[in-house]
Amino acid sequence: xxxxxxxxxxxxxxxxxxxxxxxxxxxxxxxxxxxxxxxxxxxxxxxxxxxxxxxxxxxxxxxxxxxxxxxxxxxxxxxxxxxxxxxxxxxxxxxxxxxxxxxxxxxxxxxxxxxxxxxxxxxxxxxxxxxxxxxxxxxxxxxxxxxxxxxxxxxxxxxxxxxxxxxxxxxxxxxxxxxxxxxxxxxxxxxxxxxxxxxxxxxxxxxxxxxxxxxxxxxxxxxxxxxxxxxxxxxxxxxxxxxxxxxxxxxxxxxxxxxxxxxxxxxxxxxxxxxxxxxxxxxxxxxxxxxxxxxxxxxxxxxxxxxxxxxxxxxxxxxxxxxxxxxxxxxxxxxxxxxxxxxxxxxxxxxxxxxxxxxxxxxxxxxxxxxxxxxxxxxxxxxxxxxxxxxxxxxxxxxxxxxxxxxxxxxxxxxxxxxxxxxxxxxxxxxxxxxxxxxxxxxxxxxxxxxxxxxxxxxxxxxxxxxxxxxxxxxxxxxxxxxxxxxxxxxxxxxxxxxxxxxxxxxxxxxxxxxxxxxxxxxxxxxxxxxxxxxxxxxxxxxxxxxxxxxxxxxxxxx
Length: 559
Known about the structure:
By secondary structure, the protein is an alpha/beta fold. It is built from 19 helices and 14 strands. A hairpin with a 2-residue loop joins strand 10 (409-413) and strand 11 (416-420).
């Protein structure tokens, strides 16, 4: 127990803890965090196949914050932010926590420091019963703290120390029953602590690979005939899914696993209703990052998840890698059926917001990176954030699909999102509300915005603890691999003859009027989405057409 926890417990014992709810019961909180579920992987989000009636119910009975961001592109750092309200780079948790050798090579600790004050620490000190069931992934192996060291009264976990599901994990059918086991234990914990406020993490393994649904779960999708060109997926996803092997089988396995997870969440919702606890229980639902990439060797069926219309996937700082569901339900307190399109909400806001709703003070010593958005959650008007959101990613990017190494810093400030490298170069600028698919890079047209956001992002990096992995990234301009070495550059392609852009222009100018419309520009373009991204870069005067001079000059500049 660290000094703050002891201090908080003493305050509680002498009766001067800063709670102000009076006769109103403090709310219970259940935080459901799925694993690698894409922004499009639910019925309410427009997935053309998957059946998720209980998630759809949560969306209809609560608020969907459509611009909700996790703090990292993979699991361990993302979970760190939810627990601490700190950007994970502050704890040097740059990527997933692995074995000691790989952690050392990547300048990472073997676990989240148990001396750091967490959300369950704060709630427990205020009289909450605290539980955690399911995936952990904040540290395991010899010497790693158990969840009890982070403020949990009861925990049973996968990928960590303490009480685990290791016995069940070695039994046949575990992967098809895992969510059932986690929900069973969550319900038991709630029944045991129904007379006091409780906080529970229910962190699933679904839809992270491997997926192994039972025959009964698969039967729900016997008649499914998925198509990679289904218009519900959009052009980016159509191209991506078209490369997946055995799409029909993979999509059936993926959807069956998600639907079973949804069924188990439905059991939890029904239990809250039966116990009369639903009205005073806040449910928050999200995922730790975007959907897996089918090219990852162990992804198997998890690789057909959908980011919806968003660009990128897991391990990418494009929207599809870091924008996940932000569902909040609290009957009578959080507006039902509201879809908030404009508010920018981050995982780092979770701790201060939950504490505010629970009447628990957040000590200044915690120095949260997030904001108290409790008023917004309860129906207040959307307003611009008083601070931006930041990301850092130092490792290989899978599924970016752009043929180059994307920048490894990102900042979201107002409507703008900037990606850049650690030296301030490689800027890509997107106006997210108008361009959630990040097709239209405005860096060349908005140099003042690029300068302003670059200064903020690089100033933020200076607040982070030093990291050998970051130093290598800065020195080489390349991500590091699992051994902490700079990733090799892509092999050089055979030299191609120089392109005669004047001839190309004349070939595209089918009506011979001396300008190219977007339709003419995209004719025979191998990747329509990439073409739509490039067109405004060529269109330097912003008139919606390309002159021969624009097409030739900008093209020769390599943009």
